[in-house]
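Input sequence (111 aa), recorded before submission:
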Amino acid sequence: MAQEFIQWLSHPGLNHFLIISGILFSFGIFAVLTRRNAILVLMGIELILNAANINFIAFSRYGTGTLDGQVIAIFVIILAAAEAAIALAIVLNIYQNFNTVNVDELNQLRD
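Predicted structure, token format:
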């Protein structure tokens, strides 16, 4: 039984990548829904995007065998870099004006 488990771990397949991607996606959703700090919410979004990248690459590798998943993953990485730069600029501006990055305390933005 242990020998079969070791052999299962030593030859990763599509299921392994989907499990890792699901775990990353779950951590990302948990971070977005439970955190109050804007920086940690952004980190959760990055985890979600990384989980999507793993899915794209795994399905490309084990599905069609083409490079479509890798190309889409590169575009997602570019999107994530742009999103991080813009979001961090917004967070720094909010901190400069309100002296907090707590998402719950930013209800003054509506006024």
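Checked by second reader. The chain is about 80% helix and 0% strand.
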